[in-house]
Amino acid sequence: MNESGFFRKLEDQFRGDQFDGRCPISLDRLADEYMELRPEDGSEGIRIPIKFVRNFTVGFQNDDKIPLFCATALSQDILYKKTDTEFAFRQEFIQEMQQFGKYFAIFSASEFIEKMSVFVEKNHMAVQYGPVDYVEIHKQYDIEMLNEDTRPGIEAFFKKDVSYRWQNEWRIILLGAKDAPPIIPPGSGYFIANIGTLNWFHIMETKDLLTNTIQIREVDDAKLQSKKILEI
Predict the structure, then answer these.
(1) Ramachandran area for residue 29 (φ above 0: left; ψ -120 to 50: alpha; else beta)
(2) Is 35 exposed, middle or buried (0-12, 13-18, 19+ CB in 10 A)?
(3) 3-state SS class at 25
(4) SS3 106
(5) Among residues 232, 230, 228, which one has the least CA distance to residue 109?
(6) Alpha-carbon distance 125 to 117, whole Å?
(7) CA gap 131, 185 in Å, rounded
(8) DSSP 124
(9) Which of 28, 63, 104, 172 sees the fewest Cβ atoms within 10 Å?
(10) pLDDT (tens digit, 9 = 90+) per residue, 56-111?
């Protein structure tokens, strides 16, 4: 599991996202107003016209050190119907995946969640998971959120700009107990969650997405769609 700040540091356009897990605040409706900046020493501050503020982003302390695992959800969002029972991968999805490398792994989400839940409980952690919602990120957050007690926090990791939509991402993040040492310590950029061996797991080549069809059936995916917090 990479640290959450990993994706903010990347410069490539298909993985790198400077707003991953953070909230870029829209200031458009306040263009004629001012922002006052005061030094911590109490000396006189300065007023800056908001129309000159180009990048105002909100996060929280240590929001770059959270263990984060990303996968693509196999759903009809990236498939199109060929016959009554067969589906093929959309070209937009294939083009997106070809940027990531030569191989991909496919596994059961329900089995993965079950094993991760056992690991989390055993190690006294908390977990949150679910699909990413794709939005117009620069219109998603208004400055009024700064006055609320319930800011997005962790939820911001489950919203990304619509330009990433063909990744059809599903994420899982881990949180440590309050006052516990960070799961990813300083000097490290990742965490290995040893959840054991998956019984259903296959490695395939990305080029096979061009020719493969897949048979799917409807399932109750409420467990996979609902973000869930396990008590520590």
Answers:
(1) alpha
(2) middle
(3) strand
(4) strand
(5) 228
(6) 9
(7) 27
(8) T
(9) 28
(10) 677 777 778 899 999 999 888 898 888 877 888 899 999 999 998 899 998 988 89
